[in-house]
Amino acid sequence: MNDSMEYTTLGRTGLKASVAGLGCGGPSRLGLRNGAQGEKSAVALVREALDLGINFLDTAESYATEAVVGKAIAGVARDRVIISTKKALPSPHHSEIEKEVKKGLEQSLKLLGTDYIDVYHLHGVEPKDYDFARERLMPVMRRLREQGKIRFIGVTEGFVQDPSHQMLQQGLREDLWDVVMVGFNLLNPSARGSVFPMTQEKRVGVLNMFAVRRALSQPNRLRGILTDLMHKGVIPENAVNPEDLIDFILKESDATTLPEVAYRFCRHERGVDLVLTGTGNPEHLRANIESILKPPLPKSVLKKLEEVFGDLNHLTGN
Ligand SMILES: NC(=O)c1ccc[n+]([C@@H]2O[C@H](COP(=O)([O-])OP(=O)(O)OC[C@H]3O[C@@H](n4cnc5c(N)ncnc54)[C@H](OP(=O)(O)O)[C@@H]3O)[C@@H](O)[C@H]2O)c1
């Protein structure tokens, strides 16, 4: 624990997690994507996140960052960090599904240098995969939990393919998942109506992904998206001028950057437990943590954002 960080309870897991979690995947993969930076910098970035009070690290079999996380946490008491990692879905036609899931988990444990995972997710489950995940993979996950190799079972949505949360709306009808990872941001706040009421009712832990992607880190990209929405008639032409909207949000909210606005928007949403932030840039890491710890956006800004984007459920922020 660190005095400058805030901690929260991750739903029914009871885990005390920092309100900012480090995303070790996403477009930057700790700076390792496209070999932008080396492993040493990535390990240093994870260590800096820990020094800043982050105790929740999200990685996945498919990100190729588990080994980096393993190196960064070597020497840290195991109960000081919460490790979240994920299993990519095997083909439903795989001849040995249970063996494949176990093999994936063993490999993750080895790379992470630990003998248990705190939250083990099925990764990017699309609506078409849900029945398979529930009927064939869930029993395997439960056996792994009984063996003590994983503590809690999670599922992450494929937000790009499923921006209106069809999979989670189906999956949350039953009481199967301890934690879910949900795409939620100011351009697509639809989880507020379709997902969060169910997670709150069942005390499912909620990890927020997609708080900031290209559209919310690059003002030009956001201008382009707004113009496109107007041309398509999704937003009335006279409702907003892209330039004015961005100016209004920044001036009215005392925020200095769009990512700050975007992180504050997510962090104070009722129903979001922790916001994931991924980067390869230590300055961005520090700024993003600071943003996540700032107060909510003013009501006037939230109202404007609701007017413009409140009904949208198709954008991802890319
Ligand atoms: N289906 C799934 O399971 C799934 C899907 C997506 C993500 N995830 C998880 O969720 C985490 C969060 O993912 P995400 O989709 O929200 O993306 P993210 O990993 O948080 O990436 C954010 C992107 O925005 C840029 N950025 C961050 N801070 C910035 C700043 N202050 N100024 C300008 N640019 C900034 C980063 O580039 P720089 O490197 O330049 O900072 C990065 O490319 C991932 O890391 C991953 O762990 C899971």
Architecture overview:
The chain starts with 6 loop residues before the first strand and ends in a 9-residue tail after the last helix. The protein is globular and about 60 Å long. Helix 2 (66-73) packs parallel to helix 3 (97-112). With 318 residues, it is α/β, with parallel strands linked by helices. The strands form two sheets. An eight-stranded parallel barrel has the order 3-4-5-6-7-8-9-10, surrounded by five helices. The chain has a two-stranded antiparallel ribbon with strand order 1-2. The chain is 42% helix and 16% strand. The chain has helices spanning 39-51, 66-73, 97-112, 130-146, 166-171, 191-194, 196-202, 214-217, 219-231, 242-253, 258-267, 282-292, 299-309; strands spanning 7-9, 16-18, 20-23, 56-58, 82-88, 117-125, 150-157, 179-183, 205-209, 274-277. It is built from 13 helices and ten strands. The mean pLDDT is 95. Helix 2 (66-73) links the parallel strand 4 and strand 5.
What is the compact description of this entry?
42% of the residues lie in helices and 16% in strands.
> For the CA atoms, what is the radius of gyration?
19 Å
The count of β-strands is: 10
Largest sheet: 8 strands, parallel, barrel
Give the helix proportion (percent range).
40-55%
Strand order of the largest sheet: 3-4-5-6-7-8-9-10
Residue windows where pLDDT falls under 50 for at least 5 positions: none
Distance between the termini: 33 Å
- Helix- and strand-based class? alpha/beta
What ligands can be seen in this structure? NADP nicotinamide-adenine-dinucleotide phosphate
Note the run of SSEs as H and E: EEEHEHEHEHEHEHHEHHHHEHH
The helix tally amounts to 13
Shape: globular
| Percent strand | 15-25%
Q: For the residues shown, what is the average pLDDT?
A: 95
